[in-house]
Amino acid sequence: MKDRLEGLKNEALEKVVQADSLKALQDIRVAYLGKKGPITEVLRGMGQLSAEERPLIGQMANDVRAAITEKLEEKETQLEAQEVERKLAEESIDVTLPGRPVVKGARHPLTAVVEHVEDVFIGMGFEVAEGPEVETDYYNFEALNLPKDHPARDMQDSFYITNELLLRTHTSPVQARTMEKYKGQGPVKIICPGKVFRRDDDDATHSHQFMQIEGLYIDGNVRMSDLKGMLDTFAKQYFGEDRTIRLRPSFFPFTEPSVEVDVSCGICGGKGCRVCKQTGWIEVLGAGMVHPRVLEMGGFDPKKYSGFAFGMGVERLAMLKYGIDDIRHFYTNDLRFLEQFKQV
Predict the structure, then answer these.
(1) What are the φ/ψ torsions at residue 97 (nearest 5 degrees)?
(2) Where is the signal peptide (predicted)?
C-alpha cells in the first residue's frame, strides 16, 4: 500500500507540472483528491491492515494528500499570474489616445421659459401651485363657469377617459382647487404652470399637448388696474424694458370683463412689420376679472372679494422670445435645435 501511495503521489505531481490551464488543474484535483479518487480508495481499505500498519499508512496518505494539494495551489497561482499577464498584453490601454468628450446637457427651452416666468411672478409675491393632469369634469369645467352644454366641453376638444374624467384642457382647475383649499379666506396669489391636452391637429402653431402658465389673485378690492400693472411689469421683465402692453375686450366664461393682452412688437418697435402683421402688436395671453360665479363656487364671497386671472402658453412665449417658427421643434428632440439653447 505504501508503494501504491508513493506511485499516486508521483503520478499526480507529474500531471500537475504538465497542466496548462486552471480547468486541467481542477480535473486533477477531482481525480486524485475527490471522494471517488484513488487516495480515498486506499484509506477505505485500511480496515484490512494490522493495528501497527494503520497509523503509518494513514500518516503517509495524509502526507501524499498534502503534497498534491500544495503543488496544485502553487501551480494554480502560477497559471493565474500567466492569465493576468496574457490579458494585460491583449487588453493594453494606449494612454496617449485622446479621451472621449463628455457631452453636457442643458435645460430644455420650455423649462427655461417656465423658470423665468416663475422668477418674475415670485418676485411679485406669487406662489407656484400644481395639480393633477387627469382631472374631473367638475374642476376642469363646472367650477370655472362652464356648464354641461358649453361649446368648450365638446368631445372634439377634450380627451375624455370616462364621462367624469379627462385630461385637463387648461391649468385653471388648479385655481379652482386652490380656492377650495383657502376656504373663502384671502388673499390667494398663485401661478400654475403645467401640461395641458386638447384634441388639436398638430401643425406649426398647434399641438395636442402643450404647456400653460395661469395665474390667480384674489383679495379685497382687486381691480382691473392691478391686473394691467402686473402684466405690464411681467412684459418688461420677460420681453424687455422697452416693451409695452395693451388690453383688448374679449370673452372667457370664467372672467368678466375679459381681455386679450398684446405686447408691442420687438422687431419693429411698434411701427408694423411682417412678424406683427403690420399692427405693431403681438397677442401673448388672455386675462380678466374673476367671474363672481367662479368666486362663489370656490367658496369666496363675491361681495367681499374680487380678483383677476390670466393664462399664457409657454410655447408661444418661447417662440416669441427666441424667434421660433414651428411649435413641433420643442417635441421632436432634435439635438441640432436644442443645442442652440445651452446658454439660455
Answers:
(1) -70, 145
(2) none
Considering 58, 90, 122, which residue would you say is the last residue of a domain? 90
- Whether the model pTM is above 0.85: no
Annotated binding-site members: 256
Query: Which residues are part of a known binding site for Mg(2+)?
Result: 256
Q: Return the number of other C-beta atoms located less than 10 Å from residue 151's C-beta.
A: 9
Alpha helix (H) residue ranges in the chain: 2-18, 22-33, 38-44, 53-90, 109-122, 137-140, 172-182, 224-239, 292-297, 314-322, 335-338
Residues 270 and 186 in one domain: yes
Q: How far is it, in rounded angstroms, from Cα 91 to Cα 99?
A: 17
How far does CA 97 lie from the centroid of its chain? Answer: 34
Indicate whether 199 and 231 sit together in one domain: yes
Q: Which domain holds residue 58?
A: 2-90
Q: Is residue 215 part of a domain?
A: yes
Domain count, the chain: 2
Contact partners, residue 145, CB within 8 Å, separation at least 6: 253, 254, 291, 293, 294, 297
Is 85 a member of any domain? yes
Say if 100 falls within a structural domain: no
Average pLDDT on 52-71 reads 76
Amino acid letter, 323: G
- The HSE-up count of residue 253 (CA atoms within 13 Å, CB side) is 15
Vertex 42, ends 15 and 5: CA angle to 5°? 45
| Cis before 132 (ω within 30) | no
In a domain, 96, yes or no: no
Q: What is the pLDDT of residue 1?
A: 63
Cα 56–chain centre separation: 75
> What is the pLDDT averaged over residues 231-249?
93
pLDDT above 70 for 344: no
Structure confidence at residue 246 (pLDDT): 94
